[in-house]
């Protein structure tokens, strides 16, 4: 990830560009006022002696006209007098309003104001909107940022658990009620690639998903649901990825209770897949990584040897005694490999074994 200072500098540059785009009409009209007005006075205004004023004096006169304090004397020229009457109210409405709004938006970013988040979101395209700044939402944000994706977070409560942590990491965080019709548009959801509904309210997550699809029909929707039956119906009806916390946690907790070597599990279609740690003892030493895959269907994710870990070791790597392998396989294949190495079912927890802690929020999002 980029250093915070560099990321903050780039965010400010994008913010400046976004403000320039938003105020382009004001800036254009201001340029017309401060260039066209002086040029007109320079071309049209004549002193009582019949002399033309220079551009600097005309600019000086235009500037003070904004405050109703003309610096040039009255002349009998109706075009000049019309401009003298039009510039003060027009200039105040244009410049004063534009300057006030620009200054407000510029300093609002230090208060994490809704306007600041909206402007920053306008600079993004293909980002991910995460609704919910709780434990699950925070971990999803962390995972996405590690993969280099831009994220905008929406949270209803200012005192939510990870609001301060997200702000410290300079993640755009919108404090707003997701039921508000202006909430999702402020996150530029129409240009987002995906939205993750990770609040602890099933109904709120469904409402967010429906609103997001209405604003962006092509957005990918991921919904966290607590009701298993509801998650299946949502997946089929709305073509969204609906994840039930209980269904994610159940296999991991069941397998962790059976075998401390299993560190992760998930379902792939109808297959129960496990990730386990195997220490090379009887049977495994002298085999190659490819032989373990071909004979037992186990993919070697990493190999630890001598305190160093190698990801995706080559197929011709020979396993040595004492190596620790991270293996991914279906549960039946895992049991077949364990039988081959003559490792019995662990009957009870040993006080030397680590106690797995399985939480639904610990599941990484890929």
From TrEMBL:
Superkingdom of source: Bacteria
Full protein name: TrkA-N domain family
One Gene Ontology MF term: monoatomic cation transmembrane transporter activity
Species: Pseudomyxococcus hansupus
Residues of the RCK C-terminal domain: 260-343
PANTHER family registered for this protein in UniProt: POTASSIUM CHANNEL PROTEIN 2-RELATED-RELATED (PTHR43833), VOLTAGE-GATED POTASSIUM CHANNEL KCH (PTHR43833:SF11)
SUPFAM superfamilies: NAD(P)-binding Rossmann-fold domains (SSF51735), TrkA C-terminal domain-like (SSF116726)
RCK N-terminal domain residues: 125-244
GO biological process terms held by the UniProt record: potassium ion transport
